[in-house]
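Look over both lines:
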Amino acid sequence: MVSRSNTGLRPAGPTRGNAVTLLAAAVAPALCAALYAAGVASGLMPMAASLALALLLFGAVQAPGRWAVACFALAGVVLLALAAGLIPGLSRLPVGGVSINTPKALAGLAALAMFPSFWSWNRRCTFIAVVCLVAVPLLAVVVGFVRWTPVAGSALLAFALTNAFTVVGEEWFFRHWVQRPLARWGIGVSVVGSTLLFGLVHLGGGLTFAALAAVAGLAYAGVYAASGGSIWAAVALHWGLNLLRIALFGL
């Protein structure tokens, strides 16, 4: 999960040469340039943030000791700023009646390029996923947060394609930058800590939405831990719950 060195907690990452790591880091500014070309990025801030993210991600993998930890932490700050929409000059990219959250897509794909994960799933993951896919929608209905409003297949497909970018961005941040480092204090701390933060960042949708998000976040964290650290397992459950929500209750 994570490793300790004599300089402190160092983020785990792939063993790569400088050239390959540099190419992975370049994903952020390359994607940002594509967003400028698509007309959904403007001004200096998106590219400035992308370049800063590229340098920090590179440092998180290649810098020695505490410098790597500092770069890793600061990269998380930039990722969070992007995901929270705090970087001006980035707008959503319309796709088939819905849209891609471009800041989250940029953040998630940049993190994925630098810190790829593996696929793992087992019976414990299945149990957690089933409980989540039943309990969260049921709770949402019981508290009156949603009502039965199924959507057409084309709308569901468009949402599935665009939401994948959002889910990758959120899960790479919460699992790799929050839950993984917290694991040094035990699985309980890592699961609870990441769950609470996941709920807090959804407070913009109201207390009920934040509480439901926290319940879902507990399942995502549980699947990540049960799978042995597969971010893709958490992505699969997160994406699946979002699709189920849209299929049953509408956009």
About this structure: The first strand starts at residue 3 and ends at 5.
